[in-house]
Predict the structure.
Amino acid sequence: MSDFTEILDAEARRYALNMIALWAAQQLGKSGDEANDFAQEFIAKNASDEPHTRAFDRLCQLLVGKGLCTKEEVLRKMNEHGAIAQACFGTDVHDTEAEPPPV
């Protein structure tokens, strides 16, 4: 894999994580600077994780644990935002085989 491809993959991953983190912030009632700060912190904690399962687990703990959504909703949003990032950057940024863990 070339350096350019690695940089592109990393940027696409951060883009996807930013979108999912902003969605999660909205679910938590955050907006504006508070939502952006939440997203930046989430990216910092998850940008180097491969595959996305750790980010998925963290979102589930945060959102499902508070009764704000289901694991399936988190997975659907992660896949939606991953597909958007993939279309924008022309690279695969999410684990398409990921499924929510059993309840």
